[in-house]
Write a structure and sequence with these properties.
15 helices, alpha+beta, 5-stranded antiparallel beta sheet
Amino acid sequence: MQLPGSAQRLPKTGLLGIPADPADPQIVAAIGRKASLRAAADRVLPLGNLLGKDQLSLGELVRTRMGSTVLERLVAPVVAGVYSADPDVLDVDSVAPGLRASVATHGSLQAAVGAMRRAAPAGSAVAGIAGGMGRLTEALLADLKRRKVQLHASSPVRTIAKHDGGWRVASADGTFDADGLVMAADGVSAVTLLQESIPGIADLKPAPGPSVALVTLVVDQPELDAKPRGTGLLVAQGVEGIKAKALTHATAKWPWLADETGPGSHVLRLSYGRAVGQTGTAKPEDFTGWPDEKLYSQALTDATALMGTPITEPDVLGWKVVRWVGALPSATVGHRDRVARVRELAADGSHLQLTGAWLAGTGLVAVVADSRTRARQLAAELKAAAPSSY
């Protein structure tokens, strides 16, 4: 579908792009009055057996309740920006925990979204660290060193095997034995390393996630001081002439970065790469295979179109390309059941805990919370097994 090329403000009262009030003027401007009326019908349509399905995608839920236009123009761009995936392949219970139950409680999708947004803590949408997230890594490493933790960075793990009631890890630095193991890795690597020790886990190896290329531009362009697109944009698939799926105006989003760059200088980050879904008609282009110079040139073209301000090579103070190949896990339909099965197989008394986005969900909030839970569970198991040693 060819979508209009106009920019619209993302409604603030939605969840993954799903509107809490389809009659909101911002929603009407984005999808049109006819589509808005169709979405509003969600409030009176019977739920039927939709919520009773064992496996339900986010796309099916939105399309059934609010229509295709809401899905394509509001939800799909947000989901592509967050998950690099099509809503039709994403498990609703994994990407929007509690939404299905909330729909059942409140009788409609819009009412459920409104209730979940009202229950969200104030200021919970976006947070950051002055100086960038790299400072978090530095602080964690410093803390580990203070605690005399042995660190083996840049030492690939070759094998992991059960050994004398514990685990033996062979890496490029040598072989190590441990009573317990917390494995924080991507799903493909984790399953590959554990499949000889845990029967059945090989059948649950996730497919590699979509690959993403990020192009960061540092530009001298005073016209951007006005923040013409707020903190950035999400791009619906099919917008003519634009290949980026998202643009972040980083100096508009993070005050500390704006303070460092000063007036007139701006940092823009463009993201490339989408996953094909059930509604896709062709395999999306793999931008990670593009040469740096080609990605840079495309980023200038896209940034100019998206920001509404010419951004040319003479404006660029610096640029960089970063590629993430298969790094984003895809919570496809049935994901919740697969996660439960992985947890079940790992919980065989061998003092093993698994964490990472492929199990916990996308985003630092989900991964950090799950990692803490897994570490505490392992500590409790080891203490119960040998209380005098812990």
